[in-house]
Amino acid sequence: MSSTGSRTLHTSRPLSAPVANRPLSPHLPLKKPQFSATFSISHRIFGVALGVAIISVPLATKFSLMFDV
User: Fold this and answer.
1) Percent helix, percent strand, percent coil in the chain, to nearest 5
2) In whole angstroms, what is the distance from residue 42 CA to residue 34 CA?
3) 3-class secondary structure, 36
4) Residues 16-55: pLDDT tens digits?
C-alpha cells in the first residue's frame, strides 16, 4: 500500500497480477433486446437509406440526361 497525503490507496490485487479471464458485465445474449432500442436503431438505418435514395435518384437522373446515357 502506498499513501498519498492522509489517505491510503487500497487495491484488491497488485497491478502486475494476471486478470481473471471472465467478463466484466453480463453477456449480451443473456439480456433480451429492448423494443425501443431495436426500433430506434432500425429507424435510423432506414432513415439514412431513404435519405440516400431521395438524394441519389434525382442526381442519377440528372447526370444520365446530361451525358445522354
Assistant:
1) 50, 10, 40
2) 12
3) helix
4) 666 667 666 666 667 777 899 999 999 999 999 999 999 9
Nearest 5°: phi and psi at 63?
-70, -30
The residue type of 5 is: G
pTM of the model: 0.49
**What are the residue ranges of helices labelled H in the chain?**
35-66
Provide φ and ψ at 3, rounded to 5°.
-115, 140
Integer Cα distance of 27 and 42 in angstroms? 22
